[in-house]
Amino acid sequence: MSPMLWILLSVPLALLLALALLFAMFFGVWLRAKAVALPVSIFNLAFARLRGLHPEYLVDCMITLWNAGLRVPLADLEAHALCGGNLGAVTDAVVSAEKADLGVGFRDLAAIDLAGRNVVDAVNTRVNPKVLVCPPANSGLAVISAVAKDGIQLGAKARVTVRTNLARLVGGAGEETIVARVGEGIVTAIGRAESHREILERPELISAHVLSRGLDSGTCFEVLSIDIADVDVHDNVAARLRLSQAETDKRIAQARAEIRRAAALASQQEMKARTTESEGRVAAASSIVPRGVAAAFEEGNLGRRRPLPHSVNARMRWRTAG
User: Fold this and answer.
1) I want to staple 132 with a disulfide (CB 3.0 to 4.6 A). Which of 31, 46, 76, 160 is the partner?
2) Is the whole model's pTM more than 0.90, yes or no?
């Protein structure tokens, strides 16, 4: 047999062998797809394997969708899997959304999944609204505290019922934003009350005020209701502040009195110093008298009457004559 003829015969044999091997590898998967009339060929499965995908997984997801009445092509499943999405979660979410008649398709939920959201939880929350507790259990706070205008501190706990807004799920704020806004609304509602008794008598004032602030704006949820679970009186802040102010005023008055007492003591010491100084001057003046007497003795003037001046003698004579 010539080499050319051998080459001509070996090429078809290689092709037949490759087809037989391909058929043997994907026959089971292809047979499962054909059992439900999926438009999938063995070559589609082979190309999916060449792209690094698992044909069995793709076919299982496609069978689930087709049995639910959703005609999603294999190309869309492959594209989502190649993008790194969770194909199984999207499949379950699409089926749930279809049964609940939410009006979203495979591509919508695939985009949500690629955005990093949990599509299964989002669809379930849309069907069955969830309840958020404010403050949350992991915050370390038992209640949200605020002070009314009469100075009484109240603590409140709220339950917020929300459901997912699938149209705003991509780019919308999450549960933390809803809880934070509810907490802010509780503080504002209690703070604007004239008396704490208004809140204790009508806790729905808090709910009405919080709902009027548009809590779900810019979030991926719709707030259905806010229920105030508990309202308690915690502290009389006004009385405590007045007591603290009185204590502060007392300390200020004591400090001022101490200043005045210190000034009086300083003045007293100054007067004592002046008295001592005056006594010293008196003692110094008194010491001059003995010296004067001694000088008079020395001069012989002491005990001898000195003649008076002429003017004094004339005045005395005039008085005697008169």
Assistant:
1) 160
2) no
